[in-house]
User: Fold sn-glycerol-3-phosphate dehydrogenase subunit C from Cedecea neteri.
Amino acid sequence: MSGCLACKACSTQCPIKIDVPEFRSRFLQLYHTRYLRPLRDHVVASVESYAPLMARAPKTFNFFMSQPWVQSLSRRHIGMVDLPMLSTPTLQQQLVGHRSANVTLEQLERYSDEQRAKTVLVVQDLFTSYYDAQVVADFIKLADKLGFEPVVLPFSPNGKAQHIKGFLQRFARTPAKRLSF
Assistant:
């Protein structure tokens, strides 16, 4: 189970539909009711909470994360090697002035059927929005050139890391917050 990527390919290919990622999450939840969780699990499960805060000053964050002593601490105490650097410029900086970043839910609800047919809703993902923002910016440019109106929805945690690490109670609360959009 330690090599599981939680991609769920096993459950779609399995004739009896065994969902290994779900099984693994439940196991980890039960296991850690008895045994102490490693610090790494807490860091990984909380990444969606602190990434937006770090993205407010990505160059400062990247400077500290690239320091040898920080990398050494991360490797020894958290077990993480080669921490990813935040994107600079950030997605918000790349989209300044673009109409896709300024559409509100109320405006979307007022769209005509014709406008809705040409609208592409871009649901932000933690890793592309904060660690590879150029991909999202390029997609928005592509959608524009193809005649669509891309609308970037506000970032909202999806809880994937919480699920993978077995924080199932926290994970159950995360999608509920997301659905309130």
Remarks:
- Residues 14 and 169 are 27 Å apart (CA to CA).
- Strands lie at 119-122, 149-152.
- The mean pLDDT is 89.
- The chain is about 55% helix and 5% strand.
